[in-house]
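Entry for the shared binder. Reason: the reviewer on the internal report wants the predicted structure included alongside the sequence.
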Amino acid sequence: MSGRCDRAACAKPAVWLLMSVVLFISGCSLFSKTPSPVTPDWQSIVVAADEDANANSPVAIDIVLALDQNMVESLLTTSASKWFATKGDVQRTFAKSIIVFSYEIVPRQSVKLDHQALSANKILGAFVFADYSTPGDHRQRLALNSAGYVLQLETRDFRAFEGQVTRSFFGQIEKAISGAAK
């Protein structure tokens, strides 16, 4: 018996090797698939500022919608102070990768944002940045499948609460804020 094999016997390991490589490559692509952009489900977004929000000073708020995965990854690690310091450059450089909605909220103010404008595009991620005078990230990621949010601006930071805000609930927020001012 020589060290040589016939064609049928030699082909079997090569076929198995080829099949293994194909399965490995297709399996890797299943796990690294980039998510598809979606239209957010938000029916309402309300920003409500406490009477002493940001140490009784206005708060600049940016809602940033990310249109590509690289921008999502970058925004996940960006603090609000860095965002506001580089916002103009980022908007110019990555104009096709983000949409920015900017607001300024004063203490004791509550505002229902235009959810239709915020939900008009298919996006991969959404972030809120609040320009507080105190140290901290002051960043929240918003789930795209939530019915809505209340962004509560507090003394040193803000919180995002999920849930749809009805007209009566919005009225209660306004009453609570104006009542706290008395």
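Summary line for the report: The first helix runs from residue 7 to 31.
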